[in-house]
Design goal:
about 350 residues, alpha/beta, FAD/NAD(P)-binding domain, 10 helices, 18 strands, binds flavin-adenine dinucleotide
Length: about 350
């Protein structure tokens, strides 16, 4: 007989773990890798978010400043109202998992039929199903036509190396090194995550990363990377809830996708828990999640336009635009809107 759960979640990274924490009932998490094994991210996120996931012990360094470097100069942003941190991915995942009562199965989710997820370890049935498998959208892609889940994909590659570096999150718009994207340096204790990103989704980024590392006089250690998926198409396919990068919820321009994945997952967790407790119907939860994602579209369109500008503007005009947002009032206005994206909307509950 097919094992049956209240919810089956494919993918046990940021979105999957956040959803498992919030969902009441009997929950199964399915991931093709062990929990925390497969880091793709630079793991920079708001400190408050990491704490709310119960993963404060994974924090490596707190950052109250963000620096944007253009060809001409450095712009400093104040993050003291919402400090960010860099954290250890494996530890984060272990701590987040320990905060949920979900069961875990290591298996690759292959397809969805109705409410049954077929995996390499057998089939599992759930009253609710969520696809949290990242840009591959492993389940959604088996039930939705490709056009319905089309994503815009950037690609990032990074290497974590041992060296000293000033605190803060550092972003470099250096065209000689990253012609269609940006580079970053995220310090984490005595190590630094150096990375390069191509907005166009160019994957052969090793030479660019090498150029960046040469500039700082450090040698690459192990590398990791992957796609960042933006799109925010309809996040409900049939009865399937699509959350995080699989729903294209990574933000254009900045490539920030941890906060958005976790917050969208919390939203879905709260909605489905209300259904489980008989307070709401599944149809209501689907509509509420659709409305939640639709409310992000304006901000996402703005960030997509800013990405377009960042790719195409020559150095000087790009510097002028960044300067315009880097004054105290510009920073406050941008950060208020930006950090408000994918916020929580408790008021929707019936
Ligand atoms: C180089 C790089 C650096 C980044 N740095 C940052 C950063 O500093 N801050 C930030 O906010 N964002 C960052 N991002 C973006 C961020 O990593 C993603 O937006 C975020 O990981 C999305 O979380 P998720 O849970 O949706 O998907 P993922 O983190 O991609 O997790 C998907 C999970 O699904 C599993 N999976 C995949 N296929 C299957 C399958 N068929 N069956 C079962 N399991 C499956 C995977 O093993 C994985 O555990 C970065 C991205 C890259 C590529």
């Amino acid at each position: 007989m097919t094992p049956t759960y209240d919810a089956v979640i494919a993918g046990a990274s940021f979105a999957g773990l956040a959803l498992a924490q919030r969902l009441r009932g009997r929950v199964l998490l399915v991931d093709r890798d062990e929990i925390g094994e497969n880091q793709t991210s630079a793991c920079g996120a708001p400190l408050r978010l990491v704490k709310a996931m119960g993963a404060e012990d994974a924090v490596q360094q707190v950052h109250e400043r963000l620096y944007i470097y253009t060809a001409a100069r450095r712009h400093e942003w104040d993050l003291r109202r919402e400090p960010f941190c860099t954290f250890d991915y494996r530890r984060f995942c272990d701590l987040a998992l320990s905060r949920s009562s979900a069961e875990f199965v290591r298996a690759s989710a292959q397809r969805l039929e109705g409410h049954t997820v077929y995996t390499t370890r057998g089939a599992y049935r759930g009253r609710f199903i969520a696809d949290c498998t990242g840009w591959r959208a492993a389940l959604a892609s088996t039930v939705a036509p490709p056009a319905a889940i089309e994503q815009w994909r950037a690609f990032g590659l990074e290497s974590e190396v041992t060296c000293a570096f000033p605190a803060g999150l550092h972003f470099y718009f250096w065209r000689d090194c990253v012609p269609d994207g940006y580079a970053w340096a995220f310090p984490c204790e005595n190590r630094v995550r150096f990375g390069v990103l191509s907005y166009r989704g160019e994957t052969k980024l090793r030479p660019r990363l090498q150029t960046l590392l040469d500039r700082f006089g450090v040698a690459p250690e192990s590398m990791h990377g992957g796609y960042l998926a933006a799109g925010t198409y309809d996040p409900v396919v049939g009865d399937l809830f699509v959350v995080g990068d699989s729903g294209g919820q990574c933000l254009p321009l900045t490539g920030e996708g941890i906060r958005t994945a976790v917050r969208a997952a919390w939203q879905v967790g709260d909605l489905l828990s209300a259904v489980l407790e008989g307070e709401a119907t599944l149809a209501w939860a689907k509509d509420a999640y659709r409305a939640y994602v639709a409310a992000q579209r304006r901000g996402i369109r703005f960030l997509a336009a800013a990405t377009w500008a960042a790719m195409r503007l020559p150095d000087r005009p790009l510097d002028v635009v960044i300067s315009a947002f880097s004054g105290a009032a510009g920073q406050r206005a941008f950060l208020r809107r930006y950090l408000g994206m994918f916020g929580q909307t408790e008021s929707w509950f019936p």
